[in-house]
Amino acid sequence: MSEAYNPSDVEARLAAEWESQGHFKPDLNAPQGPFSIVIPPPNVTGILHMGHALNNTLQDILVRWKRMQGYSALWVPGTDHAGIATQNVVERQLAKEKITRHQLGREKFVEKVWEWKEQYGSTIVRQLRRLGSSCDWSHERFTMDEGLSKAVQHCFLELHKAGLVYRGYYLVNWCPRCQTALSDEEVTHEEVKGHLWYIKYPVTLGGEIVVATTRPETMLGDVAVAVHPDDERYKKYKKNQELDLPLIARRIKFIQDPAIDMEFGTGAVKVTPAHDPVDFLLGQKYGLEAIRVIDPDGRMNEQAGPYAGLDRFKCREKIVADLEAHRLLDKVENHKASVGHCYRCKTIIEPMLSPQWFVRMKPLAALGIEAVEKDGMRFVPERWTKVYLDWLNNIRDWCISRQIWWGHRIPAWYCKRCYPEYTQRQQRGTLSGTLVIDEGHAGIVVSAQAPSSCPRCGGKDMVQDEDVLDTWFSSWLWPFSTLGWPEQTKDLATFYPTSVLVTGQDIIFFWVARMVMAGKFFLKKIPFKDVYIHGIIRVEGGKKMSKSLGNIIDPLEIIERMGADGLRFSIAHMASEGQDLYLSENKFLIGRNFANKLWNASRLILDPAPDAASGAPAVPGQSSTLHKTKEGSAELRAAGTPSVSPVALDSPSLTVADIWILTRLEEVTASVTESLNEYRFNEMARHLYQFVWNDFCDWYLETAKLQREDNLEQTERVLRYVLERTLRLLHPIMPFITEELWRKMGGQGTISKAIWPEADLSKKGSVKVAQAIGEFGSLKSIIGAVRNIRATFRVPAKEKVKLLIRVKFAEDLFLRNEKLIKRLGQISELTVGPDILPPPGSAAAYSGSVSLFVPLAGLIDIPAERQRIQKEMESLQTRAQSKKGRLNDPTFRNKAPADVVAEEEESLKELEGELSKWAESLKQLQ
RNA sequence: GGGCGAAUAGCUCAGCUGGUUAGAGCACUCGGCUUACAUCCGAGAGGUCACAGGUUCGAUCCCUGUUUCGCCCACCA
Predict the structure, then answer these.
(1) A245 touches strand B (CB under 7 A)
(2) Model ipTM value
(3) pTM score
(4) Could you say which residues 867-886 of protein chain A have a Cβ atom less than 7 A away from any atom in strand B?
């Protein structure tokens, strides 16, 4: 084995092998039944970033763990077609060749996107494999697959049948760059510094009303000015008053509505129903006309008169200038407002009146609420429940049509004769009346296939809706569409509902809530019971990780340098429940170093010792005949387990170190399993790290090196036993290195199918075990004390010292472990007895009932020693003092539980004992 | 405007239902290439647990308020 662990040698090879062997197909005969997770499908355009690395590491830990526990574990991978994002990518690519999608035409363009998908779309799933994700790749799905497309269509038709899909003429969020409508969730609001312009609107019969606006360009579409009915300032104007819209001569109305805030601006507001959500509602309420002055591309249209053709922001400048020229601008204030931006391209959203398809969400939201209130779905951390419910309780209808080409076509058909007539009528009308489009009336047919004729006029010319569906309209079916729905497949019956969803907080609305609604609506069951919401990845300093900030930490580069296991371990170690993760490069060292530590510990155990000169190898390799599998052992049920003999804690020949490490192994097994049960990934990592590094390597291996000289066979058995089981505990978090080492131990097949260890803490309380643990603790603490003394007095590492231990009981413990104490403390001569007196010039230390002395005549530095003792005493005194205070307080004695009081008394006694010994030392130093 | 999260060592963070001496990694200091590992070993230093009240025998932890930072939601024209 190489001196340093080299992950790149191992990982790619194993990832390929795992897949080719089909290890991650669910074992349908697994004893514990199904366990399933569907991956949050990354965008096909995506490349692996830290968010994916986190998300998939956590999922993989769960899946590998459950698989080892004997579940029929299925992790369904796949990708999302990401309508707008993907279309944008391909459009940009075409732009390099100076081609627009319009030049290409729809069919050719969609073909191009598919080509792009075939060529680059597998990037991210390849990267997921590299991360070690144990997905069942034969189950991989894409949201535009034939099956999933069928599911989408079925879904649309069913919802339509249930009256939950409708076409309506509403004000929607419009991205002038992407040239499509967006749902409310696809708009991100950002605070933008702007201005509040106060514009004078002349009243027809004399006087003027000053209105305040942040968007002067929309005044061209104004149809009214509104004030609060109680506003004294405007009482003089009658209801049927009219005003003259400045710049373009047009009469507009004067209305009074209690929704107007008298405090804001002048208390008078211009009303632009075609370009403002609030005004749209007012328009509806008062039957106002909606005049659209901005076109889908963000330019002013012919309704804008002299401003037609100008970009909306250029128009704003010109309007302001013109108003100023006409002295119609009263004043300008600085003003901050939250402005909607397209979540894909960051362009400022334009509220735009247009006909779109919507899903009626209220009835579905009720199902979503029911999921947590009745069906037992829970969020981890729990606080997200409130966020989820608040959204559902205030839900608005979901705009699902997109004016792009890449996506699922809407199964709706328009009569070429009726529909244009209808829309023209609609656009000329006012906002009173219903805004839901009566399909029969408008010449629209919702159906999977093209209808032969228009049911209204009998026209034969029916064309399919040009629009496609929102990407999330396919993702919300993901937990069941990937299992074959709407067909009643075996997969669906077995693996739905899934077990847990692991995702980020940013898509609770987009995705999680909608999946719950769809799952409940179509399958009558919640799609998953637990929703684990992990944090968002950031970089140190709190900024978002983004290309434009140039602060990306690329997981692939980290994998390159630290190994996938190193990356995974580091990430899991940082992922404390639901908290955001702040990353920096050096945080990944922990995982890399840990893997190397594990590698080298294994090397010590598995590699034959190099000093062949001293006769037989100190450590036989795995070929040794000493380690034959014991038949029928519960530990060894899994086929192919390396030859490891179970070590029973009550075996008589075990040393205190053996018993201690074996007990720690049981403890860590219990803690790791418990941590996983509670989705505490960071604790899992910490427990394993602490156990492997501090307990196993720092103490047990050092002890074992010596033990091997005396009792090779047994020590080997313990070493191999602990290592093999530790590898299994580590496997979910570090799959590659554990597989590699497990095989080096002689494991056949794959560790990913080995059995998850079960903790046995039953022996922990036995007298023998408890005593051994206490005794090993004493050994550790006296070795620690000696090392401390050595360091304090700068005893050169190679120079050995004498050690005297004064102890009334258990002398033989120290004699039995003389070799260990001597080796780890660099001791030349050890004396143990009940009546030992410190030789002059000794440094002393006290721990419990043990006193130890290190003769350092000549080396000892009296002031330093005095300082060391005083410091020790000070800390003991502080502690004793606070305990005394507590114990002298009668209320503490009365109210605190008896065991707490007893404990305090006990520990005070101990402190005082130690304190007096230190005091004695100090005296002797004089 | 509403809600959520965070504030603990120089840095980044743990600390699960209140109970000896508040932990880790990195950085730092001292000493070591000790035959698994310098991606290492040994020993240290470093904290008024943001602030102010309260509950309690006892508060980093529970309650109230304040400050700072971050995020989410909202029809702030």
Answers:
(1) no
(2) 0.95
(3) 0.91
(4) 871, 875, 879, 882-883, 886
